[in-house]
Amino acid sequence: MEQIRPEISASQKKIIHGVYVISTRLGNKVNAMTAAWVARASFSPPLITVSIGKTRHSHNMIKESGVFAVNVLGNDNIETGKRFGLKSGAKTDKFAGLEYDTKATGSPILRDCLAWMDCKVTAFHDAGDHTLFIGEVLDAGVLRHDAPTLIYDRDKFFK
Ligand SMILES: Cc1cc2nc3c(=O)[nH]c(=O)nc-3n(C[C@H](O)[C@H](O)[C@H](O)COP(=O)(O)O)c2cc1C
Q1: Is residue 57 part of a domain?
Q2: Total domains, the chain
Q3: Can you give the three-state secondary structure of 82-129, one letter per residue?
Q4: Rounded to the nearest whole angstrom, what is the distance from the C-alpha of residue 35 to the centroid of ligand 1?
């Protein structure tokens, strides 16, 4: 892997991200992963971008299925972020024992999150060791207003 200059990494870490769970469905298999590199991209149609590492199990599932849902975590959902972000669905069923809903695409919608957006992939772009997926929001909902969106803080997840 190319050595990144420390000042480049340090500068990039000053960018603020929220924390989201990106879920998907391929046939009868569901999976999800935690992601911080998520952003709005267009008002009309409503588009969202998610940057997914090429080594993630979710990466090929999203590429093949063409669908994903964005679940917005609250600042009281750190354990959910860890559940989906610290192990791969390649070997474990991260949804074991967890009930979820499904909407237009069949991607899991978490019951305990602030809001969700169910998306179909309209384009994807190679972005180094990640792929940038652009999703059109087909359906969405707000579940809770009682907590602020979880802001990504490395120490909360990797200490
Ligand atoms: C807080 C947090 C943020 C993360 N953000 C991203 C991200 O934006 N993109 C990404 O590819 N991986 C991200 N990850 C790592 C994936 O969630 C992790 O590799 C996960 O195990 C992949 O699951 P999968 O193999 O089942 O797809 C993040 C992890 C955490 C804990």
Answers
A1: yes
A2: 1
A3: HHHHCCCCCCCCCCCCCCEEECCCCCEEECCCCEEEEEEEEEEEEECC
A4: 5
Minimal-distance CA residue to ligand 1 atom 29: 85
Cα–ligand 1 centroid distance for 37 (angstroms): 9
Structure tokens at 78: 């750190």
pLDDT at 2: 78
| Domain span at 43 | 15-153
pTM above 0.90, yes or no: yes
In a domain, 109, yes or no: yes
Measured in residues, the chain has a length of: 159
How does residue 79 score in pLDDT terms, banded at 50, 70 and 90? very high
Measuring CA to CA, which residue among 56, 8, 13, 47 is closest to residue 151? 13
Model pLDDT for residues 95-135, shown as the tens digit of each residue: 999 999 999 999 999 999 999 999 999 999 999 999 999 99
